[in-house]
Specification:
The complex is a heterodimer of chains A (564) and B (359). Chain A has 564 residues and is α+β, with helices and mostly antiparallel strands. Helix content of chain A is 40%, strand content 19%. Chain A has an 8-stranded mixed sheet. In chain A, helix 4 packs across helix 5, helix 7 packs across helix 10 and helix 13 packs antiparallel against helix 14. The longest helix of chain A has 53 residues. Chain A starts with 13 loop residues before the first helix and ends in a 24-residue tail after the last helix. Chain B is an alpha/beta fold and 359 residues long. Chain B folds into 2 domains: 134 residues, Winged helix-like DNA-binding domain superfamily/Winged helix DNA-binding domain (Arc Repressor Mutant, subunit A); 213 residues, 3-Layer(aba) Sandwich (Dna Topoisomerase Vi A Subunit, Chain: A, domain 2). Helix content of chain B is 43%, strand content 18%. Chain B has 13 helices and 17 strands. In chain B, the strands form 6 sheets. Chain B has a 6-stranded mixed sheet, with helices on both faces. In chain B, strands 9-8-11 form a 3-stranded antiparallel sheet, with no helix packed on it. In chain B, strands 1-4 form a two-stranded antiparallel ribbon. In chain B, a hairpin with a 4-residue loop joins strand 2 and strand 3. In chain B, helix 1 packs antiparallel against helix 2, helix 2 crosses helix 4 and helix 11 packs antiparallel against helix 12. The chains are: A alpha+beta (564), B alpha/beta (359). At the A-B interface, helix 13 and helix 14 of A face helix 1, strand 4 and helix 2 of B.
Chain lengths: 564, 359
């Protein structure tokens, strides 16, 4: 082996190796988990960026009690190359926190907080910094002001070695403003108007967040404004103690290790909801060791015993006051604002639990006509908008329990002759402290029996409301057609009779016309009486009772035998 | 019924409607139900009779409105025809009334098939005959033989019309029978058989009057035979194909039809007897080889006839059941398998000589 050349292999110091390892780890972590973090596929990646920007703004505004006003703009710079700008009227970010929020992956994780959170997808806005840096090498530009007339403008990159922000440039200028503006460049993404694209995400977010005003400018320069229709800022979700059911050994052991309780009994009663001393006694009877033990000394084996015991014991259902649904009235306003449907109905179920302990609540809405449904070319298709804790789920609809529950409803019964092609939008919002996603991608909810049942019941009730509206509308259309037909023939009949008898044809015609109108008006009154009876029937019925359509009896129908 | 009375009846019909409308009542008219459900068979007279069932036509019922309006338009137009002393064909009536309804793309009548049945509705509900409404249908049917008719001052000698004979008009009320010397009337279903018999000079050699109905007999043809028989007391025989359709044509000539049951007395001729073709003819004349297989519609029709009260005479049941059993039908012209002359020289004379008729 020749010596002295500069290319000889030389031994490397462990520090170097570690440095490289660390560098690899953050980038690698991101690359390996790209799909789970929402950055897979050109369209989806762009949607995820928009999602992170909007979520960041919404969360900040709501925490500060500010009615959110958000602006998003996308500009195309080249093939698969875009610029994004987002701006909000939020509280602004104190300068010392800027680096953490935008420059540190997995900072401030919501891990182990039993709170219903919007941002259960993605990894926060630092992911945006990471992705744009990975695809363009460009820094994120952040302008923010907390309202003190000092606007901080920061250009930052993510230092992958240290997993912290690398501030490239920083300046301060004076301006009377409050909020945060984020600007960046990204490649390897693509914009479209499809049902998985950024526009659809914005639209659905508007439906789930009627207290928000959002302006969206797409790469073609089309500007869409979804106005605020509600002045009510949703209450921030409350943190709740977890319910013992649904805990697994690993979770329980981790909590025990960090517990400050003196023995396992007190750890269980203070850390979980619905665990009383009586329940601890029941657990004690089922395990082989003394629960007076220090919780920090709990072993895996013992923890397994506790989990098995919990499984056998009945606990009170968890409290549901931590759930924050959108609310019937809010959804209705948002639907009218966004879809301008000719008919809409919202059904909200009472909170309940699934798999024995996780509280959840279902809200559904059916919007018909207007711009409800999806236009695919010339064709209209029904669409299902899925939400988990107000956050739109755009991907993996096929695997999702929310989709399955919606499709399991026999829509024909409710007057949808061809549901697939009906101009209808079905919204399903699943609210829970723990949404059971089918995969780490967090885009589809697993089909737990209790969840499916609640959604079905809610949709069936909404279906019945639609049917009442629809059959009334159909009757109105038919009546209108009958009226026109009769009036049409009256213009021939009355003059003919008048010519036969020498009567005044105009007088006769107006008499005949009023006769026709009176008959049809009588029918309407009859129907209204029937409708009222039908509603009383419905409300008296059980959830699962489905009421079939009832035709109003026709007034004085004489049938004619017509034989040859 | 005089023209004046007809005009009064139509005017009264209009007055009733006017009264209903002025009094804010739904305009209605009552029409006797026509069809099997409202027809009975009078065995003693051998005639179909219209029952008393009626149906209401209500203008405010969407299913009736168009027909209601059309019926009134027809009545108005008929009143005009009668007043002006004009007679129109039912097709002319259709064209007179067809127009676009103001501000629509719809016509008062789209097809003559819409107006034709309503004319009968009007006849039955007013109790007025079609000819009294000054309406006529197309000519159908032919007559030849020793009969002299006076038509509006002209004299027609039906033995001197060459081979074509007299085309029977829709209305024959004005005919006067000047001289009828034929011994009997022979009614023939098909035009082809009529032509064969004319060429064989059957009517001359046998001194009879021959009438072809050319398929199902029209009103004019039926009325002419009815008048000849009732006024001149002349025996009548009918000669049709040996199939359910031919037999039904015979029954209409004899007992009247369901659609015009209200006019059976004027259109039916109960004294007619049936000469052929019968099912027994097939064996008797050795025609097995020239029969035709029954189709499904033929079989269905046989079963329908078996249900009709006026086909319950045992001779007719026997014929129909035999036809169903053999599964064949026999046409008049199948006799040509023997020879062209056979029908005129042997078949008919022999049957008449032996009086082999069905009732």
């Amino acid at each position: 082996m020749a010596a002295g050349t500069s290319n000889t292999v030389k031994e490397r110091h462990a520090d170097d190796l570690f440095k490289e390892f660390k560098e690899v780890s953050v980038t690698e972590f991101f690359r390996k988990n790209k799909a789970h973090l929402g950055y897979s596929g050109k369209v989806r990646s762009l949607t995820t960026i928009v999602h992170e920007l909007i979520t960041n703004s919404l969360d900040a505004c709501e925490e500060a009690g500010i009615l959110p006003e958000i602006f998003i703009e996308l500009k195309q710079l080249g093939s698969n190359h875009y610029k994004f700008v987002s701006r909000d009227n939020g509280p602004g970010i104190p300068v010392k926190h800027i680096a953490d929020v935008f420059g540190k992956m997995l900072a401030g994780t919501k891990f182990h907080r039993n709170v219903q959170l919007r941002g259960q997808q993605g990894i926060g806005v630092a992911g945006v910094t990471m992705f744009s840096q990975m695809t363009t090498g460009q820094p994120l530009i952040i302008r923010t002001c907390t309202g003190d007339n000092k606007v901080y403008e920061v250009k930052l990159l993510l230092d992958v070695m240290k997993n912290k922000a690398d501030i490239v440039e920083e300046k301060v200028f004076e301006q009377a403003w409050r909020g945060t503006e984020i600007e960046g460049e990204v490649k390897n993404v693509q914009f479209n108007l499809g049902d998985k694209g950024p526009f659809e995400y914005v639209k659905r977010t508007a439906i789930a967040n009627p207290h928000m005003k959002i302006t969206f400018i797409d790469p073609e320069g089309r500007k869409t404004v979804f106005d605020r229709v509600s002045e009510v800022i949703p209450d921030p979700p409350k943190e709740m103690k977890p319910h013992p059911k649904g805990m697994d050994t690993d979770d329980l052991l981790k909590m025990a290790k960090t517990s400050i309780g003196r023995h396992i009994g007190s750890f269980l009663t203070t850390s979980f909801s619905r665990v009383t001393n009586a329940k601890v006694a029941e657990i004690q009877a089922l395990v082989s060791f003394d629960l007076k033990k220090n919780p920090r000394k709990l072993t895996w084996k013992e923890t397994e015993e506790i989990v098995a015991a919990i499984d056998k014991i009945d606990f009170m259902a968890p409290p549901t006051d931590g759930l924050s649904p959108i609310g019937e009235d809010q959804i209705r306003k948002a639907l009218i604002n966004v879809l301008k449907p000719e008919f809409e109905t919202v059904v909200s179920r009472n909170p309940t639990t699934y798999s024995g302990g996780v509280p959840f609540q279902v809200e559904v809405a059916v919007a018909y006509g207007g711009s409800a449904g999806r236009k695919v070319g010339e064709e209209t298709r029904s669409e299902i908008m899925r939400f988990a804790n107000r956050s739109p789920l755009l991907f993996d609809p096929g695997d999702c329990g929310l989709t399955k529950a919606t499709q399991s409803v026999d829509w024909k019964r409710y007057g949808f002759r061809d549901f697939e092609h009906a101009p209808v939008t079905i919204c399903v919002n699943m609210v829970s402290t723990f949404v059971p996603y089918t995969s780490a991608g967090k885009q589809s909810v697993s089909g737990e029996e209790e969840i499916l049942k609640e959604i079905r019941f809610a949709l069936m009730e909404a279906g019945r409301k639609f049917q009442r509206y629809h059959s009334k509308k159909r009757r109105d259309i038919e009546r209108e057609a009958r009226l026109n037909t009769l009036l049409k023939y009256a213009t021939e009949l009355a003059p003919s009779v008048a010519r036969l008898t020498g009567a005044d044809d105009e007088k006769l015609l107006s008499k005949l016309e009023s006769l026709i109108r009176r008959k049809l008006k009588y029918e309407v009154e009859q129907e209204e009486v029937d409708e009222q009876l039908q509603i009383e029937d419905d409300t008296a019925g059980d959830d699962s009772t489905e009421v079939g359509g009832k035709e109003a009896p026709l007034v004085e129908e004489v049938s004619e035998e017509d034989e040859k | 019924m005089s023209d004046k009375e007809v005009i009064e009846k139509i005017t009264d019909f209009g007055k009733t409607l006017e009264k209903q409308i002025s009094g804010s009542n739904p305009p209605k008219m009552t029409i006797p139900v026509r069809g099997f459900s409202n027809v009975s068979f009078d065995k003693t007279q051998n005639l179909l009779r219209l029952g008393s069932k009626t149906s209401n036509r209500n203008f405010l019922n969407i299913a009736h409105a168009r027909k209601f309006m059309q019926t009134v338009l027809i009545s108005e137009k008929c009143k005009e025809f009668v007043s002006r002393g004009k007679t129109a064909s039912i097709r002319e009536l259709y064209y007179q009334l067809k127009h676009t309804i103001a501000d629509t793309k719809e016509n008062t009548f789209e097809d003559q098939s819409e107006s034709d049945p309503l004319i009968v509705d009007l006849e039955t509900s007013l109790g007025v005959l079609r000819e009294e409404l000054h309406l006529k249908a197309d000519d159908k049917g032919t007559l030849i033989g020793n009969i002299v008719i006076e038509d509006s001052g002209d004299t027609i000698d039906c033995s001197k019309l060459g081979r074509s004979g007299l085309s029977i008009p829709s209305i024959v009320e004005h005919y006067k029978f000047k001289k009828v010397t034929g011994d009997y009337i022979l009614l023939i279903e098909t035009g082809a058989m009529f032509d064969r018999l004319v060429e064989e000079q059957y009517h001359i050699k046998n001194n009879c009057i021959m009438v072809s109905t050319k398929g199902q007999a029209a009103r004019g043809c039926r009325r002419l035979v009815n008048r000849l028989v009732s006024e001149k007391k002349i025996p009548t025989l009918m000669f049709t194909d040996g199939d359910p359709w031919g037999y039904y044509i015979y029954s209409v000539m004899k007992a009247g039809s369901m659609a015009l049951a209200h006019e059976s007395k004027r259109l039916g001729t109960p004294s007619i007897r049936f000469i052929g073709m019968t099912m027994t003819d097939i064996d008797e004349y050795g025609l097995t080889k020239v029969t035709e297989k029954l189709k499904d519609v033929d079989k269905k029709r046989i079963n329908e006839l078996l249900q009709y009260p006026w086909f319950q005479k045992k001779e007719w049941r026997t014929e129909l059941l035999m036809m169903a059993e053999k599964g064949v039908r026999i046409e008049q012209q199948a006799l040509a398998s023997k020879s062209l002359e056979f029908v005129a020289e042997e078949y008919l004379p022999q049957k008449i000589k032996e009086s082999k008729f069905l009732p």
